[in-house]
Amino acid sequence: MIRAMRGWNWNCADAASKSTYGDGFFGARIKIADIKGLNNAVWLTTADNFEIDIAEARYPSYVHLGLQYWPPANAGQHAGMGWGATFKENLAAGFHDVGLLRTPADLVYEIDGAPIAAVRTLAP
């Protein structure tokens, strides 16, 4: 299901699935808004309370990538890690592909087909 929300000078939407997915490649083609302070985000959530931030892009050229753990209420403490990437070009000038390759042991983040960060989530 995709819900589109409109009303200001920008649009947003979210997509929810009745199916669950494990490993694989997850990606989106995005064009970020040319509005300072607006967080243009593509992320996944897991059944075990993780949030995988494929891209949190901010005008004009910054992208944050991350992995967060959000425990159920009163069941632990939030934990997270992340990286930032700054690009030379204005990301609002055109569309860009953002993606994540998720394997049983790794997360590999990519932008426009090039890997830019990776994390091992399980010991080999």
UniProtKB/TrEMBL annotation:
<dbReference type="InterPro" id="IPR000757">
    <property type="entry name" value="Beta-glucanase-like"/>
</dbReference>
<comment type="similarity">
    <text>Belongs to the glycosyl hydrolase 16 family.</text>
</comment>
<dbReference type="InterPro" id="IPR013320">
    <property type="entry name" value="ConA-like_dom_sf"/>
</dbReference>
<dbReference type="GO" id="GO:0005975">
    <property type="term" value="P:carbohydrate metabolic process"/>
</dbReference>
<feature type="domain" description="GH16">
    <location>
        <begin position="10"/>
        <end position="120"/>
    </location>
</feature>
<dbReference type="Pfam" id="PF00722">
    <property type="entry name" value="Glyco_hydro_16"/>
</dbReference>
<dbReference type="GO" id="GO:0004553">
    <property type="term" value="F:hydrolase activity, hydrolyzing O-glycosyl compounds"/>
</dbReference>
<protein>
    <recommendedName>
        <fullName>GH16 domain-containing protein</fullName>
    </recommendedName>
</protein>
